[in-house]
Design a protein that fits this description.
Number of helices: 5
Order of helices and strands: HEEEEEEEHEEEEEEEHEEEEHH
Largest sheet: 9 strands, mixed
Radius of gyration: 32 Å
Number of strands: 18
Mean pLDDT: 77
Number of domains: 3
Helix content: 10-25%
Strand content: 25-35%
Shape: elongated
Oligomer: single chain
Length: 281
């Protein structure tokens, strides 16, 4: 026999480095002036180190016959950036004076990306941009060029070099990356910002320039404008809370009573329970 009210049943049931020197290297007798890279050399013997040459500002290095970049540095991303690294390092090519030589499909054994052909890190046969080579088979005189890694501010992804055509909001000068990010965060219309660096282009943006953007793309190469791009990370949408079956029926849920033969419609109409979000099964 069914109970006269659900309260009867309720009552019954109740019982997740490589340290690299910056600027002028203190190792040995470094050859160093405003127009030359830092050569980590002592007498006529090259120091045994993964970094053979560092630019004056520390933004670029030439590795000592390494095919990967050491901690704190990353591969050069484009031919234009390779040219900028060559200029910043003060490298003069014997075969292609002032120019990066494009290797094309590459020679098996040559590193991918930007690398220098040198035996003593003073005289350079060529600087290569190799977009399609392999990294198999070690060879002498093959020295990958790397650029300093940049950590994006919280909430941003960085694209180096990168820019957005148009969509300018306002240009600020003399900022740090973090200051530029703060300016973007304070503007509800700002979805990204371009940040000025030295990619060797004249009559363009200057280091420290901060150009707020009202769009996050399409992204283009920023080398010609001396720009890196920082794009706001779109947060994952907050999932809608799932409907819950609350204890609105005599101290229990309608699903509880559904297990004892009561339908939601009966509990709603006869016993005036709120069975929203319940299946009563």
């Amino acid at each position: 026999m069914a109970p006269r009210a659900p309260t009867a049943i309720a009552a019954a049931l109740a019982a997740p480095a490589l340290a690299v020197s910056r600027g002028r290297a203190p190792l040995g007798e470094a050859i160093c002036d405003a127009a030359q890279p830092v050569l980590l050399q002592k007498g006529s013997q090259l120091q045994t180190t993964s970094v053979a040459v560092t630019s004056e500002d520390g933004r670029h290095i030439v590795t000592n016959n390494l095919y990967v970049c050491p901690s704190g540095y990353e591969p050069i991303p484009s031919q234009a950036a390779c040219q900028n690294a060559m200029d910043n390092l003060g490298i003069t090519s014997q075969r292609n004076s002032g120019e990066v030589f494009v290797q094309g499909t590459g020679d098996p054994g040559d590193p991918q990306a930007c690398w220098a052909d040198t035996a003593d890190f003073v005289d350079y046969l060529r600087v290569y941009w190799n977009p399609g080579g392999t990294t198999t088979g070690a060879r002498s005189r093959r020295n990958v060029i790397c650029q300093e890694m940049v950590t994006a501010p919280a909430g941003y992804d960085v694209i180096r070099p990168g820019a957005i055509s148009g969509h300018n909001i306002i240009l600020h000068h003399g900022t740090s990356v973090d200051q530029c990010a703060a300016l973007c965060n304070a503007d509800a219309n700002c979805l990204a910002f371009e940040y000025g660096v030295d990619y060797g282009t004249s009559n363009s943006y200057k280091p420290g320039d901060c150009q707020l953007q009202s769009a996050s793309g399409p992204v283009i190469d920023g080398t010609g404008d001396n720009l890196d791009l920082y794009v706001k990370v779109t947060p994952a949408p907050t999932p809608a809370p799932s409907a819950s079956c609350s204890e609105t029926c005599y101290g229990y849920t309608c699903d509880f009573w559904g297990q004892h033969g009561y339908s939601c419609s009966v509990l709603n109409s006869r016993y005036r329970c709120d069975c929203s979000g319940c299946s009563c099964s």
